[in-house]
Write a structure and sequence with these properties.
The chain has 746 residues and is mostly helical. The chain is 72% helix and 0% strand. It binds protoporphyrin IX containing FE (HEM).
């Protein structure tokens, strides 16, 4: 990754966060804390007492939201700083972070320390809140260790604390771009446990509530944290300032718009899951939601002002407008986080109606047994995978469009395969299959087969990496590395190389079936909405890792010859078939307790439904494998054709030097040793005869379809019986041939 200014392999000098910005951020965090604490006190939000539990006291009632707001503010600042270090400013040529990146990494270590401390504090606070006891009474380590795993909020903050600590240690130890990108990915996991507990995790439509809140909090983290990090560069005075700004400001500006849109959509979706539009007016919860909407609109206006007046000058180094607007924006954003925490603490208005058992467990009701019509038409859009399928399809089509505009060709078959893969992803997660999968083992297994086999095969046949590398502009030697270089780094990374090792890919592909279903993981995962998401993601990724080196169009870190790839496919078949049989013949239902708790009238016996699922796994699994074998055979023959064409072109270009060399060897043999083929034969069959035999032996690549010597070779065929020449010995390929039809065309 190229960068012009700093010498390679020189870690940048020690830096401290600029005081001006630290002041604004410090103030912002304080505002978030005060808004959360103030609003909670004002709305008297004490969720536990409303459930009839004793009051844990003011320290918990106000302390918890205050600490939560402060911790969440520090969490988004950490994510933003790592975003900048990894993707908004260029690293040094040698791969070390440059000054701006290193400074952001150091700033992230400070905020991560605060994030970790706040998360640890929130553990006993949440235990106290859940038990309705003063926090001082729950600080007994034994009690905490016993209760944390049983209380979702407390275990969520323990996980978040662990992530924050890992990020803190990482920020203090890594120096390279690669690792800062890994740290960024790790930090993005931080908000997930929090978003997946709380209001969103229970009750009706908790699937949509959880998915929307995860996307909501991630968008807020990238937007708020990214802005603060960019302002961090604007307040520095170093030599790298202008080049860092020139890259960071336009990149962040594009990201900011996307985050604003995601925040607006997911915020409204999440709010509407909780309260009907009519309740927006007249309820505390509704008032807080409207306040957030107002905040987002104001922030949007500030964003537009940035685009009009600050982004351009800031990219050139003049950051006055950026700092003026940015300072106000950061304060408003952090205040909105405080508002959000208060919202999360206040009870949504009671919409009456008790959710049914199915609704309480999976988030929605099922209208009856899964008929074909219901599986086909009873859709429930999956906010995560449904959106991903649409975004993947659109991004691919944009790439193809860009190639077309440049006059470059792109095989229609690849586009069709990719779009079919995206449709498969959408149908498997958002049609009736996606609706029934969390409630029935058989439908879940059907979904597993589509996501684990069919969709990955179609997606890797689309060649997305090749398309991206051709469609994305290269950064060039002096330009800051961009998406194209990041993709290349990912494809060539040691982890990609390790994962696509045939044995690793095979072990992951077939092993994860057995580990997931027969290790007790599956029953534990069933009641958790997020675990269903994780299972689907796992099926997709493991399928892609397995099928990429086998039939993938994109160059994989390891390329196996076609026979080895065929072997890998057939090696997976018995494991797959045995898995289906094992599931079918099991005596106890996997996750029986969960399926019985749903008490679906059309699933009187979960074991019977499991047998259906096992049968599906066994039968359905063969279909995609057939698709792979066909694709592999087509690719194999095409590869042969290509190498034949290449050989022909080379033979044309160098007057067939291989054949010449072979004939020379034969001539040497003829003069030095007993004649393989008598010269006299040569006169009888014309000049090319001996050469061709030579070529076949030495260069298995040689294509005997070379019409120059075709007739000769054919003749030689017949003679073979008597001479028993090199053919049998080496190539083992028939010598029948004619000149390749389109050789001259190319
Ligand atoms: C249209 C505007 C917005 C709406 C309708 C909205 C709505 C919501 C809703 C309904 C929740 C879940 C609260 C609960 O658990 O009951 C939430 C959480 C959250 N929102 Fe927003 N939001 C909006 C804008 C924003 C903005 C602009 C930010 C940040 C700058 C933001 C940051 C957050 C955060 C951090 C949470 C998680 C809070 C927590 O659970 O601790 N939201 N939002």
């Amino acid at each position: 990754m190229a960068h012009a200014t700093v010498e390679p392999a020189a870690p940048p000098p020690q830096t401290r966060p600029p005081s001006g910005l630290a002041g604004v951020v410090g103030l912002g965090v304080a505002v978030a804390v005060m808004v959360a604490a103030g609003l909670t006190a004002l709305t008297d939000a004490r969720p536990v007492t409303s459930l009839g539990l004793p009051d844990p006291g003011v320290l918990t009632n106000v302390g918890l939201p205050a600490v939560r707001a402060g911790t969440e503010a520090l969490m988004v600042l950490t994510i933003g700083a790592l975003l900048l270090a990894a993707f908004l400013v260029p690293p040094q040529r040698a791969g070390y972070l440059d000054v701006a990146g290193y400074r952001a990494l150091r700033a992230a270590s400070w905020t991560a320390a605060g994030w970790a401390a706040g998360s640890i504090l929130l553990i006993p606070l949440n235990v106290a809140d859940a038990l309705g006891r003063p926090v001082g009474e729950v600080l007994d380590p034994g009690l905490l260790l016993d209760l944390i795993p049983r209380l979702s909020a407390a275990s969520a903050w323990s996980l978040t604390a662990l992530v924050a600590l890992l990020v803190l240690v990482g920020c203090r130890t890594v120096l390279t771009w690669g690792w800062s990108a890994v740290l960024f990915g790790l930090a993005l996991l931080g908000p997930l446990p929090v978003a997946l507990t709380g209001h969103s995790a229970g009750g009706g439509a908790h699937d949509i509530a959880s998915d929307s809140l995860v996307m909501h909090v991630l968008a807020a983290s990238l937007w708020v944290g990214g802005l603060v990090a960019v302002l961090g560069i604007a307040t520095t005075r170093g030599p790298d300032r202008s080049s860092a700004l020139a890259t960071a400001v336009p990149r962040f500006s594009r990201l900011a718009l996307a985050c604003w849109l995601v925040l607006a959509v997911t915020g409204v979706v999440n709010a509407l899951v909780r309260i009907p539009l009519t309740a927006l007016i007249g309820s505390e919860y509704g008032a807080l939601v409207m306040a957030k909407m107002a905040a987002l609109i104001v922030l949007g206006a500030l964003g537009a002002a940035h685009r009009r007046s600050s982004v351009g000058p800031a990219s050139q180094g003049d950051t006055r407008a950026l700092l003026r607007l940015g300072g106000v924006e950061v304060l408003l954003m952090l205040a909105t986080i405080g508002l959000a925490v208060a919202l999360g603490r206040s009870a949504p208005p009671d919409t009456g109606g008790v959710p049914s058992r199915t609704e309480a467990v999976i988030g929605y009701d099922l209208s009856g047994a899964p008929t074909l019509a219901r599986l086909a038409f009873d859709w429930r859009f999956d906010l995560v995978f449904g959106t991903a399928a649409i975004v993947l399809a659109l991004a691919y089509l944009l790439g193809v469009l860009r190639l077309r505009r440049r006059g470059d060709a792109w095989a229609a078959g690849r586009t069709l395969a990719w779009l079919a893969g995206c449709v498969g992803l959408l149908v498997a997660t958002s049609s009736g299959i996606g609706r029934y999968a969390p409630a029935m083992f058989s439908v879940h297994m059907g979904q597993h087969m589509i996501l684990g086999m069919l969709v990955p095969i179609l997606l890797v046949l689309g060649g997305p990496v090749t398309l991206a590398l051709r469609a994305l502009p290269p950064s060039g030697r002096s330009g800051p590395p961009g998406p194209r270089e990041w993709l290349l780094a990912a494809v060539h990374s040691p982890i990609a190389r390790w994962l696509t090792h045939p044995l690793v890919a095979l072990a992951l592909f077939v092993g994860s079936y057995y580990v997931l279903y027969f290790s007790g993981l599956f029953p534990a995962a069933l009641p958790q909405h997020w675990a269903h998401k994780l299972m689907n993601l796992h099926f997709l990724l493991v399928g892609a890792i397995f099928f990429w080196p086998i039939v993938g169009i994109d160059p994989a870190p390891r390329r196996l010859p076609p026979p080895a790839r065929m072997g890998l496919v057939f090696a997976s078949v018995p494991f797959h078939a045995f898995f289906g049989v094992a599931v079918m013949s099991a005596n106890t239902a996997l996750g029986g307790e969960y399926y019985r708790s749903l008490a679906l009238p059309w699933v009187p016996d979960p074991l019977h439904d499991q047998q259906l699922g096992g049968g599906l796994a066994w039968a359905a699994g063969e279909v995609p494998l057939l698709l792979v074998v066909i694709a592999l055979l087509v690719q194999w023959s095409r590869q042969d054709e290509r190498s034949a064409r290449r050989d022909d072109r080379r033979a044309d270009a160098d007057g067939d030097s291989d054949l010449e060399a072979y004939n020379a060897m034969l001539r040497r043999l003829a003069t030095n040793g007993p004649p393989l083929v008598a010269e006299s034969d040569r006169s009888r069959h014309g000049s090319g005869h001996t050469e061709d035999i030579a070529r076949t032996t030495l260069d298995p690549q040689h294509d005997p379809s070379d019409s120059d010597s075709a007739p000769v070779l054919a003749a030689q065929e017949q003679d073979q019986t008597s001479v028993d020449g090199p053919r049998g010995a080496r190539s083992g390929r028939p010598l029948v041939a004619r000149r390749h039809p389109d050789r001259d065309v190319e």
